[in-house]
Amino acid sequence: MDMPEPDLGVIARKARIVARMRAALPVDAVIDAPEELRVYECDALTAYRCPPLAAVLPRTTAEVSAVLRIACEEGVPVVPRGSGTSLAGGAMPTADSVILGVARMNAVLETDYDNRFIRVQSGRTNLSVSGAVEAEGFFYAPDPSSQLACAIAGNIAMNSGGAHCLKYGVTTNNLLGVTLVKMDGTVLTLGGPWGEPAGLDLLGVVCGSEGQLGVVTEAWLRILPKPEGARPVLVGFDSNEVAGACVSDIIKAGILPVAIEFMDRPCIRATEAFAKAGYPDCEALLIIEVEGSEAEIAEQLTRIRQIALAHDPVEFREAADEDQAKRIWLGRKSAFGAMGQLGDYMCLDGTIPVSSLPHVLKRIGEMSVQFGLDVGNVFHAGDGNMHPLILFDANKPGDLEKCEAFGAEILKLCVEVGGCLTGEHGVGIEKRDLMSVQFDAADMEAQMRVKDVFDPKWLLNPAKVFPLGVSETRRAG
Amino acid sequence: MQTNFTPEQLADPGIARANQILRSCVHCGFCTATCPTYQVLGDELDSPRGRIYLIKDMLEAGRPADEKTVKHIDRCLSCLACMTTCPSGVHYMHLVDHARAHIEKTYRRPPWPGRSRTSG
Amino acid sequence: MRPTTEADLAEAIAAATAPLLVRGGGTRTIGQAVGDVLETGGLTGVALYEPGALTLVVRAGTPVAEVERVLAADRQRLAFEVPDLRGLLGREGVSTIGGVVAANASGPRRVQVGAARDALLGVRFVDGSGTVIKNGGRVMKNVTGYDLVKLLAGSRGTLGVLTEVSFKVQALPEAEATLVIGGLGDEAGLAALRRALGSPFDISGAARHSGQSLIRVEGMAGSVAYRLDRLRALVGGDVKVAEAAVSAALWRDVRDVALFHDKPGEVWRIVTLSTAAAEIAGRLAGEALWDCGGGLIWLRLDHGRGAEVAAAVAGRGHATRVRGDGGPVFPPEAPEVALLAAGLRAKFDPRGILNAGLMG
Fold first, then answer.
1. What is the pLDDT of residue C93?
2. Right CATH for C175-255 from 3.40.930.10, 3.90.79.10, 3.40.50.10800, 3.30.70.260
3. Mutating which of B5, B23, B44 best tests the A interface, going by the most A Cβ atoms within 10 A?
């Protein structure tokens, strides 16, 4: 992975920069010892690593503002970090950058059940937002697979999705407002608990901007009343095509399951070996979850059963109780861990039109043979967001490069069939150089103009999202 | 996660076992969410993922433990909440035990100020 | 000017030497812009419709009625319920889908599914220098690059002229019904809406006007019946049920603000918190229609009360004057936010020719 040459001037001024930050922050908030910085050299994409110049862990918006003002004056790039769970290298530092971690900013600031919102500091984890309102019967809808650990800050940066966004939408549909600190230290409010913007939807473009426009320190999030109940069914098929057709028919019938998850045979086998959830050994497996009261669940499942049975499944399994429901989800939830047992993996995230599913899966199978690397597919089928997991051996020279090349071919295929490079993980470092597959120069220029306005010196989260050649003149300026 | 041990290092069964455990960690960070010290301190060095990093560094380099590494590993309560959370089945307990043995072997702890006061 | 292709539109903008007044059908334009009229109504047609993927790609000048007809043929719809504001604003003409996006329009279902922006998957547009730009796409989950889709929604032609828009569409529900609650004052009537919205019964409309609170549920027939029962017990008051076409007519009126058709005065659209909504309307003593559980107030007042409206809403939301003359139309932005907005306009429309000054 190409990275820009670090600014040696900045590195030479490390002592002064650290001293200025120490003077502005509490004593334990600045980390500069090389052995203590190693942990911040990457996020959950471990293939690419680089220790930062320093790391700061502020506790308030005012401290974030102080850090950014100093960094801006000193010309030091800043890499915002939530919980470091990005699979795209969204929080990977450069050697001349300061990591700004918001993990210590995890307080709940306000809950309002009448107006159905919560205001939190952005370092709070996704699941603990739901946890804070659960007792009153509410939840926060976006549920990325890493929801136990990932921070709201990172969710906003990447516009995170999850398994249940078929019904509830992704982060941008559930984000009401933020407190944002610009690179120059200016603190501003975008949106608010009432939701709709008054002028331009600046909040809409900040969400998903991968921490390149500002650092979100607080957020107003929409909370929803929890449904009365939920239940999954498991349907096994002996072909990917038929499973894909079944998904399409369910959607067309006007049933809106909260989730439709898809696993292919390699993934089913790995998962069975690891988690022993009792899945059938078949070509494709769907997990479909519906919500509501007992009667409403039954009404939806009757309809889903009719549609599924018309496609001649090898298995149709309803969960009779909570325990069986857990077992149906167990395999899906263990899928990443299970694949991890087989070796190192790279998790892709392209989205495709649902109708292209069989074609894309077939091509991925062919490419797997061609590249000599195994791949398992597990994904959100209702919205076409795929997660091919390519297995490789990080300790074997050349394997990572082969895996990268395979991944790039899969993502190009996603774009070719009318989809996109990334559905919910973000571009980060990982897909930066593929942006020109999806966008032409004018498209990227338009996006970079937004960055020009928010961060004219291009110091925030450097070397991400845009191909280095495309952003070169701006980064130099 | 990639590791960098030499074949000579891997000949040591202890290191070989540690290598196996380190290789199974995918660095997903789920463990941070259930680690009590990380909840309080908010520095990834005081989380299982951070400690695994420190241990990996220390073992790969084959160097004696240093003060900072010892501080963060000492803070681990060994509650092992991380192990039930880990989706990849990383055997943290074995790894941290191995690290503690390495620390005992290679690190000279400074005298405990409290103790010297009461005994003096 | 009324170009019929994206290339012609781009050329027209590049060649423009004077400000342009950009509009679709001009049925929901608010605010003052001057210039040569540039209409998008010539860019029509459905580019792609895949009912099984809930995806529609359509050129920006396509009439909303045409879009709705195409979707209805496959028992689908735009989830955000496009309001027809011609009656309220006293306009003629054909509403275009691009105009809907440029205004980020929404109807009563905003309380459940959001506004146009929330259903919008992709855009193509021409910026102020005549460059064609695309963003987003046709798939439901897409975080590739910055989200200019959201930025363009609601930008009212000031950042670029839309040429094509893609939506996530929704299946028509099997049934709908509305609880009509009488006998409650405004404060209690809005509280009833909040109780319903805080329940697990998936409300798709929560409005109040003319002394009645309305709560809508949609879905499978059995589910609608079940939820009506549970809600009836929850909200109290004097409750009647309106079903099917009767229910639909009630919500069409809310959507189009029919209450204020043919009545004089200014009309304000106030976005606020439900818990502040009764007090704000009461203080200003106008005629009110509350939508979105009270989070949206349509307020009819005598002319010239802008300052009072701003003071009543301050710190609790924002107010836009959608009808009436004199004074600002859009609410003022905080200086640091206004600076960013101005910066973006200068980048996307460096000559300042697209609906210049419309939004401030």
1. 94
2. 3.30.70.260
3. B44
* DSSP state string for A21-51: HHHHS-GGGEE--HHHHGGGG-SS-TTS---
Put simply, the chain A residues between 324 and 343 with a CB less than 8 A from any chain B CB are 333-334, 336-337, 340-341
Can you state the angle between helices A357-371 and A240-252, rounded to 10 degrees? 150
- The residue type found at A295 is A
Nearest to C80 by CA among C94, C91, C61, C67: C67
CB contact under 8 A, C341 and A202: yes
CB B29 within 8 A of CB B49: yes
Beta bridge mates, A304:
none
CB contact under 8 A, A148 and B30: yes
Which CATH code, of 3.90.930, 1.10.260, 3.30.70, 3.30.750, is assigned to C258-323?
3.30.70
Give the count of domains, chain A.
3
**For the segment C286-318, what is each residue's pLDDT rounded down to a tens digit?**
999 999 999 999 999 999 999 999 999 999 999
pLDDT in tens, B50-59: 999 999 999 9
The two structure tokens encoding residue A262: 């898809």
> Chain B within 8 Å of A40 (Cβ-Cβ)?
yes
Query: Got the DSSP string for A170-238?
Result: -HHHHEEEEEEE-TTS-EEEEE-TT-S-SSS-HHHHHTTSTTSS-EEEEEEEE-EEPPS-EEEEEEEES
Residues of chain B with pLDDT under 50: 119-120
Query: Which chains neighbour C (Cβ–Cβ under 8 Å, 3 or more pairs)?
Result: A
| Residue C210 binned pLDDT confidence (cut-offs 50, 70, 90) | very high
pLDDT at A254 over 90: no
Q: Do B89 and A148 touch (CB under 8 A)?
A: no
pTM across the whole model? 0.97
Nearest CB neighbour to A35, from listed B3, B29, B57: B57
Check: CB of residue A162 under 8 Å from CB of residue A148.
no
Q: Do chains B and C touch (3 or more CB pairs under 8 A)?
A: no
Last residue in a domain, options A416, A440, A455: A416
Domain C6-171+339-348 and domain C175-255 have a common topology: no
- What mean pLDDT comes out for the span C56-61? 98
Provide the CB-side half-sphere exposure for A110 (13 A, CA). 13
Distance separating alpha carbons of residues A237 and A240, to the nearest angstrom = 7
The residue among A363, A398, A416 that closes a domain is: A416
Architecture of domain B7-106: Orthogonal Bundle (1.10)
The full DSSP string for C309-340 is HHHHHTTSEEEEEEE-SSS-SSPPPPHHHHHH
- Domain edges within chain C: 6-171+339-348, 175-255, 258-323
* Alpha carbon separation from A357 to A261, A270, A289, A351, A352 (Å, rounded): 13, 21, 20, 10, 7
Q: C6-171+339-348 has which fold?
A: 3.30.465
Q: Is B87 helix (H, G, I), strand (E, B) or coil?
A: coil
**Record: contact C273-A115, CB cut-off 8 A:** yes
User: What is the span of the domain harbouring residue A305?
Assistant: 230-416
Q: What are the pLDDT digits (tens) for A328-368?
A: 998 888 888 888 888 899 999 999 998 898 899 999 999 99
Please report how many Cα atoms fall inside a 13 Å half-sphere around the Cα of residue C178, on the Cβ side. Answer: 24
- Alpha-carbon distance values, A396 to A123, A230, A393, B4 (Å): 36, 44, 5, 11
The partner residue sitting opposite C143, judged by closest CB among A194, A419, A422, is A422
Query: Helical H runs in C41-124?
Result: 64-73, 86-89, 97-102, 110-113, 116-119
Q: Which amino acid is at B62?
A: G
Among C194, C233, C198, C228, which residue's Cα sits nearest to residue C213? Answer: C194
